[in-house]
């Protein structure tokens, strides 16, 4: 089963690059949901079939791969936006930054005080790279929806670490994280709807210029 | 030595236009048409060969040097490259640099031949071609560096040697698949296929490679077309060897595997061309920077 893990993690990193370079929101949501679905398979490929891992997989798959994307698609339909225009940092610079942080994650992961069996393999670098990419997406985009996507990717990175430790991590903690995520996306969707109703745009740049 | 040279050239010269035929047939099939016969590229070349030259009075010898170099360079490059499991006839340490820059040479001559006509459209096409290919070059070099790192040699023969089969099964399989994707994108860019350039449009404002050869006619145009077919086969050979690293030891079956691989590459190109739309011109550099980053990332994975 471990043969499948590395291609999965690699696909996750490729999806990071794609999201950083793409302007189309629909495509971004779709690939982030694919990323979530791929990550949901990780517990099965690393720990084999057990009650714990199957539960984790189904939970993560339903939330990350199906429900949250559905919410986001609904959100972009309601606020009628298709693409991210004029991000604060351009698409090519964010992609290059993403590549730098990915390379950095690979270098940095070797210095972390991990147990020896975690040292090899792509788990830790992928987790770090995905978190960085999500963070980049959060700070470099203007549309609230892409920021939500960045937040999702950040969580995906945390999920990778969680999978690595899922033998040690109680199921409740993982479920709690997933629930947090769901609530956050929910709240953001509602907030977004309200913002768009009031201001007819969801460009977060406008919000910082609010006056009393 | 002589035998392998003859075999190499025979494979290249005979089967290169067939790839174009397969691509057009695939596209026709996707469009629900019957399409031109598979051997149409050969008929086209024969027809062009029997026509006369029409040369503008403003052009110099450079204008004719363009097609000649475009035809000769892929042939020379093919001699450095193993075709599937058939080893390259000529090989020395560091020939990968020569391989990459031979194509640089042909590009230089095609672009100068286009500029030589003095037409503003052709100048535009030359500018685009040069921009895109200089962005595609780092991708190729980093991809070859990955292979060099894996093989421990610096000649294309060792790079695409028998160790590839084991490399796919080891930890390097991931970066090999990245390299495969990058080289496929480079193949599409260098041969001006659809996501980057449409080989069928003759709208001067959007096309890249076709606009540069607008003023060529007769045998010169035939040489350009034949050279393009050879170039596609040579670049496709990189992909085929990477994707199908099997070695049978008997040259007939090796050649058959190689040709089958090229056939698959041609079908793949046809599928990509029929399912994708042309990218906007400003998006092309972005995609190419993306593939460069991917190949650098593949190198990072291998160096780890």
From TrEMBL, chain A:
InterPro entries hit by this protein: HyfE-like
Q: Which UniProt keywords apply?
A: Cell membrane, Membrane, Transmembrane, Transmembrane helix
Spell out the GO cellular component terms annotated for this protein, sorted alphabetically and separated by semicolons: plasma membrane
Its placement in the membrane is given as: Multi-pass membrane protein
Where are the annotated coiled coils located?
none
Transmembrane feature ranges: 49-73, 85-109, 121-139, 148-165, 171-191
Localization recorded for this chain is: Cell membrane
The name this protein goes by in its record = Hydrogenase
TrEMBL record, chain B:
The stretch of residues making up the signal peptide is none
Task: Look up keyword Membrane and say if it applies.
Answer: yes
Record localization:
Membrane
The residues that cross the membrane are 61-84, 96-118, 168-189, 224-244, 250-272, 284-303
Superkingdom assignment: Bacteria
**Cellular component GO terms, alphabetical:** plasma membrane
Q: Does the keyword Ribosomal protein apply?
A: no
Q: Which Pfam families match?
A: NADHdh
Keyword list (alphabetical) reads: Membrane, Transmembrane, Transmembrane helix
Q: Membrane topology for this entry?
A: Multi-pass membrane protein
Principal location listed in the UniProt entry = membrane
Q: How is this protein named in the record? A: Hydrogenase
